[in-house]
Amino acid sequence: QVQLVESGGGLVQAGGSLRLSCAASGRIFSINVMGWYRQAPGKQRELVATIICSSGWTNYADSVKGRFTISRDNAKKTVYLQMNSLKPEDTAVYFCNAITTWGEDYWGQGTQVTVSS
């Protein structure tokens, strides 16, 4: 089992910044990929960014490229999402995700990000 706990959400004005954190515990040695997804009211959950834990290779949704940065601290077993130049359309619940080498899929409880115009 892998447990994920997100933190760092909140209310920010458009143009501002937030940093989300996701701390992993449990069978962390089995985690291959971690990522951030988001779900706005009435919309499907969508990918924001992913990172391969071993190599640091990253992937971003087009809507956040150049504004968001995903990173990881392997020693702290934590993944971060630095969000800059936030827009009202970034408002959503942000979820941390981890996929193990065996294909198991784990989710955090989510953290609310609200961007006011």
Could you explain the architecture of this structure?
The structure is a single chain. With 117 residues, the chain is mainly beta. It is built from no helices and eleven strands. The chain has strands spanning 2-7, 10-13, 18-26, 31-39, 46-52, 58-60, 68-73, 78-83, 92-100, 105-107, 111-116. Strands 2, 4, 5, 6, 9, 10 and 11 form a seven-stranded mixed sheet that branches. β9 (92-100) and β10 form a beta hairpin. The protein is globular, with a radius of gyration of 13 Å. The chain starts with a strand and ends with a strand.
Q: What's the topology here?
A:
Blueprint: E1 2-7, E2 10-13, E3 18-26, E4 31-39, E5 46-52, E6 58-60, E7 68-73, E8 78-83, E9 92-100, E10 105-107, E11 111-116
Notable characteristics:
117 residues; mainly beta; 7-stranded mixed sheet; 4-stranded antiparallel sheet; 58% strand
**Fraction of residues in helix:** under 10%
Q: Globular, elongated, flat, extended or rod-shaped: what is the shape?
A: globular
First CA to last CA: what distance? Answer: 40 Å
Number of helices: 0
Major sheet attributes: 7 strands, mixed
Question: Total number of β-strand segments?
Answer: 11
> Low-confidence parts, pLDDT < 50 over ≥5 residues?
none
The SSE string, one letter per element, is: EEEEEEEEEEE
What value does the Rg take, in angstroms?
A: 13 Å
